[in-house]
Amino acid sequence: KAGVTQTPRYLIKTRGQQVTLSCSPISGHRSVSWYQQTPGQGLQFLFEYFSETQRNKGNFPGRFSGRQFSNSRSEMNVSTLELGDSALYLCASTPSGGRRADTQYFGPGTRLTVL
Amino acid sequence: TQLLEQSPQFLSIQEGENLTVYCNSSSVFSSLQWYRQEPGEGPVLLVTVVTGGEVKKLKRLTFQFGDARKDSSLHITAAQPGDTGLYLCAGSADSWGKLQFGAGTQVVVTP
C-alpha cells in the first residue's frame, strides 16, 4: 500500500497570505489528523476528520481550518498567515475510527515558511 | 491534559554503545507508540505497545511498556549511525484522533 502523501512538500508565503495543504491517507484509512511541529512546541494537534466530519479540534485560532472529502483526502487551510505559522505540518491517517486514537501513520509533511 | 515527559532531551554516543530513552507520565495510556523522525521528514512508526509489562523487540531495539501503562522505555543495543534521529513517544488519549506526544529525544550516533 502506498503511504500517506502530502503536497506540496515545501511552501514559501508572505505574511497575510493564505495557504492550502493537501493530504491523501493510506487507502482504506478514514481518519485523518493534522499536527503542527515547531522546534519550540513539538507536535501540536490541530484537528481530526472522519467521514468528512471534524470530530476534534486542538487549541489553534480560527485561521486554521480543514475539511475532508468523500474519498478521505483532506485539506487544511491557514488564512492571514503570520510569521509564527512557519512550521512542519504533518498529516497522519489511522485505520480505525475509535475515540481512543489508534496507531497513526504520518506523511512526510509540508514545510511552510512565512516571510 | 495527559503529558508525556521524555528523557534525556539529547544523547550523543559512539557507534557500538548502548542507550536508553525514557517516556514517563502521571496518566494511564491505553497504548503508546514510539516513532523516529529524521530532519524534514514525518515521524516513522517503530512500535505500538498495548499491554502493561509488554516487551517488544525490533532487531537491536527493545521497547517496554510499564506495568501500570504510565511509562515506557526504548533501549538500543550496539547503536549504529543509522539510528541517529529524533525519537518520539506518543500516548493514545481519550480524544478523537489525537496522540499526545513527548518533546522527543535527539539521538546522535557517531562512527
Gist?
Chain A is mainly beta. Chain A is 0% helix and 52% strand.
Outline the structure in words:
The complex is a heterodimer of chains A (115) and B (111). Chain A is mainly β and 115 residues long. Chain A contains no helices and eleven strands. In chain A, strands 2, 4, 5, 6, 9, 10 and 11 form a seven-stranded mixed β-sheet that branches. The radius of gyration of chain A is 13 Å and the shape is globular. Chain B has 111 residues and is mainly β. In chain B, strands 2, 4, 5, 9, 10 and 11 form a six-stranded mixed β-sheet that branches. Chain B has a five-stranded antiparallel β-sheet with strand order 1-3-8-7-6, with no helix packed on it. In chain B, a hairpin with a 5-residue loop joins strand 7 and strand 8 (71-76). Chain A binds chain B through residues 4, 6, 31-33, 42-43, 45, 47-50, 55-56, 58, 88, 90, 92, 94, 99-109, 111, and chain B through 30-31, 33, 35, 40-45, 48, 88, 90, 92-99, 101-104.
Please describe the topology of this protein.
The complex is a heterodimer of chains A (115) and B (111).
Chain A: E1 5-7, E2 10-13, E3 19-24, E4 31-38, E5 42-50, E6 53-57, E7 64-68, E8 74-78, E9 87-94, E10 105-106, E11 110-114
Parallel strand pairs in A: 2-11
Antiparallel strand pairs in A: 1-3, 3-8, 4-5, 4-9, 5-6, 7-8, 9-10, 9-11
Chain B: E1 5-7, E2 10-14, E3 19-24, E4 32-37, E5 44-49, E6 55-58, E7 61-65, E8 71-76, E9 85-92, E10 99-101, E11 105-110
Parallel strand pairs in B: 2-11
Antiparallel strand pairs in B: 1-3, 3-8, 4-5, 4-9, 6-7, 7-8, 9-10, 9-11
Structural class of chain A comes to mainly beta
Give me the count of strands of chain A: 11
In total, the number of strands of chain B is 11
- Please bin the fraction of helical residues of chain B: under 10%
Q: Span from first to last CA of chain A?
A: 37 Å
Can you summarize the main beta sheet of chain B? 6 strands, mixed
Of all chain pairs, the largest interface belongs to: A-B, 31 and 25 residues
Shape call of chain A = globular
Gyration radius of chain A (Cα, Å) is 13 Å
Beta-strand proportion of chain A: over 45%
Helix content of chain A: under 10%
Write down the oligomeric state: heterodimer
